[in-house]
Amino acid sequence: MAADPPAGRRAPPAREGEAEEQRVSSLELFFDLVFVFTLTQLTTLLAGNPSVIGGIRVALIFVVLFWMYGGYAWLTNQVPPTRPARRLLLILGMAAFLMCALAVPRAFDGGGVVFGFGYLLVTLVHLGLYASAYGATIVRWIGPFNLASAICVILAGVFEGQAAYVLWVAAILIQSVTPFTSRSEDRPRIRSAHFVERHGLLLLIALGESVVAVGIGVGHEPLSFGLFGAVLLGLALAATLWWAYFASDEEGAERALAAAEPVNRQLRLAIAAYFFSYLPMLLGIITLAAGVKESIGQVGHRLDVAPAVTLGAGVALYLAGDVAFRTVLRIGPVAARAVAAVAALLTIVLGVYVAGAVQLVALVLVLLGMLAPETRRRLAV
What we know:
By secondary structure, the protein is mostly helical. Helix content is 77%, strand content 0%. It contains 14 helices and no strands. The protein has helices at residues 26-48, 52-78, 84-103, 112-134, 136-158, 162-177, 192-218, 225-246, 249-259, 263-276, 278-295, 305-329, 335-353, 356-380.
């Protein structure tokens, strides 16, 4: 018989559907589709300002938003949104993320306070969902940290210059220490199959957004065989990135998370793999999408430095994140992917000095050269 919870603490609720494996619900997928609009907005922001400052701004905004996305994903992993109250709160959370997404282009240029209050609403709804499921115990653990982070983001919208950047960094640092401040008995065990599927679907939708960027980049360009060839190269690039992750990473990740003992180790693995390693992967997709958007109409010519850099750096970031992901979960191989990340950066020279189409072809060939030996080994087993 299980022991009663200590006085003043509410025992975690019985997990609905415990006897059968939980799957990602349609409402969670709907939530992810709304969240990915923030990636679209960040792509537009980076495409409009493809500079070091523009990249820093995109990274700061995305890290803060992705942390709270992770909070919602962890919660629905433990407590499926099957009850009307939870569904309504989750939809309210979607509205809050939409508010943040609409303010993204002006988060550093006069719209930071609006973004901050949208982010505060994201945080409050998240705490409300936790309170409805677990009572005050976990809310007392995560609440002060998440609220302090949201206040930093609001204040960053009030100030300008270096002070604003310091406050954004402070928000991220506060978030980073949150998982390590709880007691082990307050940490629920992750349902690995649902957790892996949920994050995989997010990555898939984000890759779809990069394909959308190809269409947006075409704009009013006259239709021609060359343009169709460039579009197909953009699609091929997204497809090879899909293959790099979905051919084997999900199965290995699920096994690694399911086997992790004790709960503290599973928590550390999940944060390292699905937050810190996912960050460069998703930022890589944003960067690549910005590069495709800006270069697709001029791939027959030499590219400016900015679109060439975003194309090469986007693929390199994605692969670097995947290397970290595989290393953390011990689901190699990683050597070929690390080499491919460096090779992706080298293609920048081809875009700047030869042509955009040549750089796109080179990027696809780098990824195919990385995947071919792995595929042969997998088939031989």
